[in-house]
Write a structure and sequence with these properties.
This protein has one domain (2-81). It is 55% helix and 0% strand. The protein is built from 4 helices and no strands.
């Protein structure tokens, strides 16, 4: 059901006078659909299409990669969201 909703959130389909607000709303709704989706391959495909990923997109990527058992890529993605000088040992929960 969730995967069938992707087309509803295209920026062209979101009604509104302010195009910028419509695009932001559309991207937010697409993220929420991807976040709730249990098809992790489709979620990863969505994350790959985001032109300017926000923090929520960056944080979701390692979670999806972990669920797909792509542990090397997951570890690399976790390194992308950590502060410089921070090590994995300094956090109790990486994901």
């Amino acid at each position: 059901m969730v995967t069938n909703l992707y087309h509803l959130f295209d920026s062209d389909c979101v009604a509104g006078n302010n195009q910028e607000v419509s695009v932001i709303l559309a991207e937010t709704l697409k993220f929420e659909v991807a976040y709730c989706n249990n098809d992790y391959h489709k979620t990863l495909d969505y994350l790959d299409t985001v032109a300017q990923p926000g923090l929520n997109h960056i944080e979701l990527r390692p979670k999806v990669l972990y669920k797909l058992e792509q542990f090397e890529k997951c570890l690399s993605a976790c390194g992308d969201i950590m502060r410089p000088g921070q090590s994995f040992g300094s956090q109790k929960n990486v994901l």
